[in-house]
Amino acid sequence: MPDGSVLIIDDEPGLRRVLARVLEYEGYAVLQAPDARRGLETLQQHAADVLAVLCDVKLPDAHGVDLLPRLKAQAPQAEVILLTAFGTIADGVQAMKLGAFDYLTKGDSDDQLLVVVARAVEKARLQRRVADLEKQVGAQHSFASMIGPSAALQQAKALAERVAPTEAAVLLEGPTGSGKELFAQAIHQASGRHSKPFVAVNCSAFPRELLESELFGYRKGAFTGAGADKKGLFEAASGGTLFLDEIGELDIALQAKLLRALEVQEFTKLGDTRPTRVNVRLVAATNRNLKQEADAGHFRADLYYRLSGFVVPVPPLSARRDDIVPLAQHFLQLYAAKLRKRLRGMDADFVQQLVRYDWRGNVRELKNVLERAVILADEELLTADTLPPEFQAGPADAGAADDPHSLRAMEKRQIRQVLSHTAGNKTEAARLLGIGVKTLYRKLLEYGL
Q1: What's the rounded Cα separation, in Å, for the pair 225 and 322?
Q2: What whole-number distance in Å separates Cα of residue 382 and Cα of residue 435?
Q3: Dihedral sign from CA coordinates of 375, 380, 385, 387
Q4: What pTM was computed for the model?
């Protein structure tokens, strides 16, 4: 049985009752209004529930075709079906142009009406699902989704948030794996282009010849193997944002074509004689010092200055150590859900090793390390033995145990005291310490207990 609310706006009480009875029999919740004013009031009160509107063309206080834009503005995702006693082609054409779902003549069979209403309701449901998904995607790629309280991250976010609503080109500078694409997506979502495409390409992933065709496309027959026209990424991103990652790897000859495309918002495809017009905002990213590259002649200076009108430095993870634990907790929850594992968190040793590690691979490396740890986890807490070998304590840490005030020395004393309390029962000792038995055995070996 179908569900969803349908609003009937008609000044004939008898017809409203008949339509309502037919629709309610099919499982729809029905709202009624006798004129345009009360129809708009009802729609405003129930906009979240109404999926379709059946509206008479001739109402006491409005013409249905003229009312249509106001109905759509009130409930953009609801579908409007106009009803008329004497349909005209002109009214029907105008109604469809203004966004009506259909234009029906009163007196048509109930079966036809129900088919049209069912299609309208299904389309409205689909539109709402798409809108909900777009909201979810927007939330995932927003500035609010960036995890970490560190001053370095907050400063970078503040800069990016200031430039996002503008049309300025943005250059993101930072090491590989630091989250430059996440910044690019957040800038796009916070801009007026958020409902249009976000297209990303890594310039280092293609040879020069292939990258040119990927960016700008080509016409059929432009070269051997070009069997059909190809739309390039510039054209695909028109109206939205094009993100060029690792732009420092861009071939110097291709940089000239990119510069022109940015300056005049047009380019000529391979094999074409006419320019293609676009409307693209560019966000670029690099792990190089492009100023030095330009000064050395390895990158076009004019393109560098075109790109660097607004630079956002994206800090490495080593400069935002306050973010390591919150990020690790986020990735723990993410991978635990994906792998359907019940994990409560991370033990103290695991956290300590995360914090003191140098993270040359930045956030990407942290993400990979947490995925590995979750895969290997056998207990409710992530333990240090799930970390890669390079994390394990080495000889350099041995001297710290000799200091009675060191964390290692205090942990060793605590384990010894708990074992004494449990008369050597390691399972009970592990429970009291809040760690897994496997972790306890590793620590006993490490501390020589």
Answers
A1: 53
A2: 9
A3: positive
A4: 0.63
What is the C-alpha to C-alpha distance for residues 7 and 29, in angstroms, rounded to an integer?
A: 9
Confidence of residue 437 (pLDDT cuts 50, 70, 90): confident
Looking up tokens 């989250």, which residue turns up? 179
Assigned token pair, 61: 């206080």
Do 353 and 391 contact (CB within 8 A), yes or no? Answer: yes
Q: What percent of the chain has pLDDT over 70?
A: 90
Mean pLDDT score across all residues of the chain: 86
Question: Which residue do the tokens 């991370």 mark?
Answer: 346
Phi and psi torsions of 51, nearest 5°: -105, -25
Q: What is the DSSP string of 230-263?
A: EE-HHHHTTTSEEEEETGGGS-HHHHHHHHHHHH
The tokens describing 75, both together, are 């409930």
pLDDT in tens, 246-296: 999 999 889 999 999 999 999 999 888 899 999 999 999 999 999 999 999
Which domains, and CATH codes, for the chain? 5-137 (3.40.50.2300), 147-315 (3.40.50.300), 317-392 (1.10.8.60), 397-449 (1.10.10.60)
Q: What are phi and psi of 200, to 5 degrees?
A: -115, 140
Is the pLDDT reported for residue 397 higher than 60? no
Asked if residues 203 and 247 have their Cβ atoms less than 8 Å apart, the reply is yes
**What one-letter code names the amino acid at 367?**
K
| Cα–Cα distance for residue pair 365/178, rounded to 1 Å | 9
C-alpha span between 408 and 398 (Å, rounded): 9
C-alpha span between 337 and 77 (Å, rounded): 33
Of residues 4, 3, 8, 1, the one with CA closest to residue 80: 8
Looking at residue 224, the DSSP 8-state letter turns out to be T
Q: What is the mean pLDDT of residues 376-387?
A: 91
